[in-house]
Amino acid sequence: MRINLNYTDQSVYFMNEKLKDLRKSQIMEAAQSVVVKKGYGQSRMDDIVKEAKLSKGAIYWYYKSKKEIYLSLVDHWFNEYSEGVLHNLENKKNASDQLKVLFDYFIDQFDQNPEIFKIMVEFWRMAGLDDDFNSKLQDVYSHFLKYIIDIIKKGIENGEFKKVDPRITALSIVVNIEGIHWFTLFDRSGVEAHEYIDTISDFILNGLKKKS
After folding, report:
1. Which H or E run contains 182?
2. Cα dist from 37 to 43, 48, 150, 194, whole Å
3. What are the pLDDT digits (tens) for 175-186?
4. What is the pLDDT of residues 115-169, one digit of tens each?
5. Which of 158, 154, 187 lies closest to 170, judged by CA?
6. C-alpha distances out from residue 148 to 16, 195, 196, 211, Å
7. What is the number of H-type helices and E-type strands within the chain?
8. Residue 26 neighbours by CB under 8 Å, 6+ apart
């Protein structure tokens, strides 16, 4: 009898955790949609409530304020894209192939939904106004930077890349990926986002690779 009770308790626990994750994901998707449309300053909790199709009490059960929701959205956005990048890199052994996949992944995401990239422009704007946003973005980007640094170090160690400074090179890659965001703001540049990424990635990879 005791075993059945423990099993039931475990089932209830996992069901509750699954519902919790589902609700949080629902709130994150709603907040993402709202911030794209209205920006941080003009959005309200009521906007997120309406978009999420949940009660205000349900949202306040998980998040105590609009700011807490958007800080969590930074992590949600980063985790979502990190998982996508890692999935695409699974079958790539060469460092140059991994970097190319990294560029291609972000441009594919831009092609699917460029509006989403406006989120990062808004996050960086908030980072200049709010220490909590600044700290959150610094933390997120330090992880992303380290990931690219490790790829570059791997390329240097296996003789694929020249002996460059991994951190400076990784920073230049992050800056150029960040350049995708500006295509959501300026649509009269005369250059397509795809052309930009293809050209920049070729420049970077050709500069990194050792001459045969």
Report:
1. none
2. 9, 11, 36, 24
3. 888 888 887 777
4. 778 888 888 889 999 999 999 999 988 988 998 999 999 999 999 999 999 999 9
5. 154
6. 37, 22, 20, 22
7. 9, 0
8. 52, 53, 54
